[in-house]
Amino acid sequence: VQLVESGGGLVQAGASLRLSCAASGLTFSTYVMGWSRQAPGKEREVVTAISWSGGRTYYADFVKGRFTISRDNAKNTVYLQMNRLKPDDTAVYYCAAKGAIDSENWDYWGQGTQVTVSS
What is the distance of C-alpha 44 from the center of its chain? Predict the structure, then answer.
């Protein structure tokens, strides 16, 4: 299984970025997909998740109203649209997949993509 993130970069506060995660080696449409992030010196935290069909989503409070997760099962890809970025959003963003929606454990992880937001 491979999860490959792309789209990270350096932006100014208030800007937008769109992350993509291309999945291979798994039946994509049967996996819950999510994004987590890890800032320097902090623990990894779940940012958002989306159900198999895209009908259910979860957002951490600190991104509600700014970030949007979506998926295209035909392309085996999950996206994270990040708007109104803040310096506190600076982190490595990881794509993840899990087979059970009620599991706290993610089965697969990508290598991460750096997002840096300058003030």
Answer: 12
